[in-house]
Amino acid sequence: MASGHRAQWKGFIKFGEVSCGAALYTAASTSERITFNTINKATGNRVNRVFVDGETEEPVPKELQTKGFEIENGQYIIIDPDEVAATIPESNKFIPCSDVDDVYFDKPYYLTPDKMGGDAFVALRDGMRKSKVAAIARTVLFRRMRTVLIRPHGKGLIATTLNYDYEVRSSKKAFEGMPKLKIEGEMLDLAKHIIGTKKGDFDPATFDDRYEAALAELVKAKMEGRSLPKPKKVEVSKPNDLLAALRESAGVLNATGDKPKRTAANANTGTGRQRAARGAAAEAASSKAAPQRKAS
Known about the structure:
The chain is α+β, with helices and mostly antiparallel strands. Among the domains are: 9-32 and 84-167, Ku70, Chain: A, Domain 2 (Beta Barrel), CATH 2.40.290.10; 235-289, no CATH class. It has seven helices and nine strands. A seven-stranded antiparallel sheet has the order 1-2-6-9-8-7-5. Strands 3-4 form a two-stranded antiparallel ribbon. Strand 8 (144-153) and strand 9 form a beta hairpin.
C-alpha cells in the first residue's frame, strides 16, 4: 500500500490448509469532510469529552479501556477481544458473488499481502476470480467480531464488512404501506422517456458532494457576515398534477398548444431550462465581477 496509509488490521487469510499474511486498509475515508466541534453556547468554548472512572472520577486513558459485561449491580466480567475471537469457530466458505444482497454491505476495505505469503494471496485472488465466487470469513475488527465478504478487486482483494441479519430491517415491513397502483399508458411512457433522456455511465469522479459545498458556503457566509440562504420549499406532485408535471418534464406541449410554463422549482429539467440556468449563472457572475472591477 502507498506510504502514509496505516493498516487497520494485520492477520492471516486461511483457506483449506493454505494461509497467507494480509493487511487491511480503509477503502473509503471521511477525512476530507468538514467537521464541527461541540461548543458551549453560553461561553463559546469548545466542549471536551473525557472518559472517567465511575468511582474514582479519574480520567481513564484509552489503553486502559476495555469491554465488560455486568453480572450484578456494579460487578463486571472483563471481556478481551482476543478471548472473543478464540471462542468463535472457524468459518469460511465460497459463494457466488451475486448471492449477497447489497443491503447487507457495511464498509469496504482493501486487502493486500503482508510481506510474506504473496504467492498464496495471488492464488486465492485468481482462483476466486476464475471461479466467479466470493469468500465469507470472520475476524475481530475494532474490538468486535465481524463477518466479511472477500472478493477479487484489481490487483488485490476487497473485504466488505457485512451487517448481520438481525441488524437489517425487513423490507416487507418497510414497504407494507405501499399502495397497490399500476401506472400505464401515457404516464408510464412519459416516465420512461424522461429516464431515457437522462441515462449515462457511472463515473464517481463526476459526483460532487453538494452537502460539503453547501457547508463550506455557509461557513464562509457567516465569516463574512453575509445573509444566509433560505431553504427552498419543495412541493410533492399531487396525483391530479402528476401527468402535467411529467409532460412538462418531458417538454411535451399542453392541451392548448402552448409550451408548458417554466417554474423555478423545475429549472433543472429540459434543454431550455439548462440554457436559462446557464444564462442566470452568467448574469450572476457578471454582477459579481462588476464590483471587483470597480474596486481595482
